[in-house]
Amino acid sequence: MVSVFEHPAGGYKKIFETCEELAEPLPSTVTGRIPSFLKGSLLRLGPGLFEVGEEPFYHLFDGQAIIHKFDFKNGQVTYFRKYLRTDAYVRAITEKRIVITEFGTCAYPDPCKNIFSRFFSYFKGVEVTDNCLVNVYPVGEDFYAVTETNYLTKVNPDTLETLKKVDMCNYVNINGVTAHPHIEKDGTVYNIGNCMGKGAALAYNIVKIPPTQKDKTDPIERSKVVVQFPSAERFKPSYVHSFGMTENYFVFVETPVKINLLKFLSSWSIRGSNYMDCFESNESQGTLFHIAKKDPGEYIDIKFKGAAIGLFHHINAYEDQGYIVFDLCAWKGFEFVYNYLWLANLRANWDEVKKAAMMAPQPEVRRYVIPLDIHKEEQGKNLISLPYTTATAVMHADGTIWLEPEVLFSGPRQAFEFPQINYKMIGGKNYTYAYALGLNHFIPDRICKLNVRTKETWVWQEPDSYPSEPLFVQNPEGVDEDDGVLLTIVAAPGSQRPAYLLILNAKDLSEVARAEVECDIPVTFHGMYKP
Known about the structure:
It is found in: Cell membrane. With 531 residues, this protein is mainly beta.
């Protein structure tokens, strides 16, 4: 599942370049046959504006959000995109400068203001960004573009118009929520974020948003906290990007990558810092694994611990014979992987890109297993008796249970990332297949499939082609877990038509069809297929 290509021509630099929005949908040139069950649209989010006038954005997660849409109709495909009209975007365009501080780019005070108005604007506190460039998901009958702050952006999935800005702080005790909720069959949404817990200590809350209401009121207004996880450090919550959910449990992995809240609140206005400046690693904590019952929500106070990892994406989690099995896209060690995602690094020449990735944490797909039934007398022996995994859990004298993973895939500087599964069929259940974007020294250059039971792998890859996260769409007539297709947007900068939507058979990653468009498409992170 490792890349067979080098990228000395540096075509990947193109996916980090500004693009213009479209006035109307563009036609595409289709080769192959679009499956008849594809009748909806593929929606994806990412950065589109990488500088405002002369002022550059510095980090991969700073560029202003643009929403992309591929529509499927009668075997034809059209492409459309529009910038989200967030406060961050509208104010930047109006004032021709960066106005709101982004993840790795600081906004400086308005040079036109005098010293007094600048002084008083310090006391307005932090203006948190609403640049929702990470994902889009449904809540009830609505669709929201999201990032990891307290702001969501409601969008019209047909016209891509921005409808309104929603502040989750108005409804629940939360500082922000992740861009990776879990959504149940009935439309119930679960998410996690850090919050102020009891006695001014930090904690993490799981928030539940109910499905569409009978009285047609906004489900977000009925959000509530269902369970709280404690924080290992009082003033420093771990960075949380996603979480696991089985039929009856939540899984929360507390990594050593911390947000220094005091620094976040103080240095911000004084020194012109940004979000990235507020991260630090706790080099001695290791990784803490937490579980909680889902309904009714109840934290299970047992300390599960493991070696230090960085974590962004859970693949899947399920219960089996008294155990919780959860699979992760892990990065070894305590260093923050986002330190390697500065645009200057990603736009460097191939040799430089490779050199930087040599220093970075190493990616690995890992399976961990947590025993639910624990007896104090079983100290020192492996508590896992599932026949199919080598993952272990051993109780130490102090009552903590040490977890060692089973490695499902490992290749040097070859990450299996942005994972996807047949979520509707096997989300939260025992499963066989995971799909992912393959990163080659952080550059996306292939689509991967992994059999998590046998470790068999498949790859789709073409030279000078840079795909995005593959989304699985089930064939409605299919019965197998992998009966369906994968949808991915591929940038092919050297080509006559520099980008295309690629449709792969999920069984063997063979090409079913592609729809080429005559414009560049920059990097996208996450998205959804809307039937």
